[in-house]
Model the fold of this input.
Amino acid sequence: MSLLTTISGAASAWTVAGVKAKAFARIDGNGDGSLDKAELQKTFDAVAAKTGREARDAEAVIARIDQNGDGAVTRREIHAHVRELKAAAASTVELAAREGANSR
Done:
């Protein structure tokens, strides 16, 4: 692996992290560092309106991801949930299939 590839990969990771942080901040309407049911449902409804798909249930999503039981999710809890999903999936195809089934 060349130094240029390594630097490019690191830069891409920082860019992705920045995009995720901005998206989280945009959804976090009150700026408290967590997404509550109302904030998440508003986002799900907006995505559903644009895509024509059924909106996900924010309460159900929070119930799956919320580790400390406070009724909201932080970036850390979301990240931990994604790591768990990746570790449990035998393949990317399985992960996509499982998440597709959960979105119905």
Notes: Helices lie at 3-27, 37-51, 58-65, 75-88, 92-102. The mean pLDDT is 82. Residues 17 and 46 are 23 Å apart (CA to CA). The first strand starts at residue 34 and ends at 36.
